[in-house]
Amino acid sequence: MKHISKKEKINFYAGLSGQNMVYSLVGAGFFTYFMTDIAMFPAAVVTVLLIVMKVWDGVNDPIIGSFIDKHTFKNGEKLRPFLRYTPLPVGIFTVLVFLVFSTKEDLLWLRVAYFIIMYIGWDITYTLQDVALWGITASVSPNGDERDNFVKWARTIGSCVFGVFSAIIPMVIEMVANATKSKMATVTLVFAVIFGMGGAMLSIRAYKAQERVIVPPKQKQKSMLESFSLLFKNKMLMLVTLSNLFGALGFGGNLATYFFKYKLPTDFLGENSIIGALGITTIYWAITVGPQFIGMIFADKLKKICKGHVNVLIFAQVCNIVTKVAAFAIGFEGINLLIGMALLAVGSIPMGAISIAQTSVFCDSIDYMEWKTGKRMEGVTFSMQTFFTKVSSGITGGLTTLSLSLIGYKAIDDTAATFIGTQSAAFETWIWPLFMLTPAIASLLYIIPLLFIRYSPEKRAQVERELAERRAQSVANSTD
Q1: What are the phi and psi torsion angles at 50 (to 5°)?
Q2: Whole-model pTM?
């Protein structure tokens, strides 16, 4: 039986697109570059900031998820109302995070304090929205196949929007600043208003999605402590979360802009080009990551071939390891860079199915825990998704700036005539292997926890069948 209307899907996907416009500003590699080369925080300070912010995330996300699971609104829903009330504060805090009121060294303490306060405000409101947004994908339909299809297109559309905007926005910011001779900080703030506030307002449309799997009040968790105890009993969720934390160690991708800025000549794309390192990075990601969208579209077929979502995750990571190592061995001199990029493009195709497979595994873990304990935990489960998304970006960003500090990186003002040869010998030696090989190492570590998950398609069918019978019986009992 189908439950989700076409209109409901369109509204949810539109709202999801708006949310990803916001996150493309904060959750992508540009955010680290903004902190080091636009806000001009020293690399060591950025490392500390990212660690502090993500420690806060680690405490904040599960607490919010537990609160959502424990709390029910008067209409019986626990997720949809958050999709209505959180977008405005998310938009406001997004703009304030990108406000650079000074770059003076003697005001560093004030700039750091301001940044932390604004980020905490952004993080709380964004987490409330994000947990509700993805939590509702597990409740939008009791039909597992319909839910999988809904998740597939949600992940595909969301990832497309995030990928396109996180790649294009930095490039366009740089081009506008170069063409108009404006400060990067000023242009960045304008884009934060347009895409941060604009995306947040568009995200309100996700409120049109419906909660159709609602647990009776007697089955809800009685306390946050119970939510946490159930969370750590969810072995499937814990193993996938551990895999993602291992995957965050692949920080090399965040070094792309630094690599292109200091290893390629300024006239790489021709004389008087307004496309700089950020633009070249966009072109690089378009070629090497763009093909992931093919993998998203055919994620369901890949699931059948691999016999389950977990095997899809393993297969994708193996492809990433092979192509990254091959690209490193080929090198980046002359045409070799283009050959390596072609290899990475092919290897990235199955990587596109990862976000879809992970979300489906999360939804499966919610069903499994309800089947096993009688408790349904969309809030705390998807708070873990939000948790590892933000913590992973924090770990990746922190390791990026830490590695830059260790190899002697020093930001050079964009007015310099050339950037070639301006960095340390350690930078010249290590930037390429860090760029290429750390993602391969992280993919290898990512695979290990997945080998311990035992949830076959047959087990999934059994869980869904028995849950449907229990819910039908619960409805029958309530009407007697």
Answers
A1: -65, -40
A2: 0.65
